Amino acid sequence: METTAEILRLARAQVAEQGAAALSLRAIARDMGMVSSAIYRYFASRDELLTRLIVESYDRLGEAAQAADTAVRNRADHAARWRAVARAIRACSRNWRSTSRRTPWSCPSPGVPRAR
Question: What superfamily does domain 2-98 belong to in CATH?
Answer without folding.
Answer: Tetracycline Repressor, domain 2 (1.10.357.10)
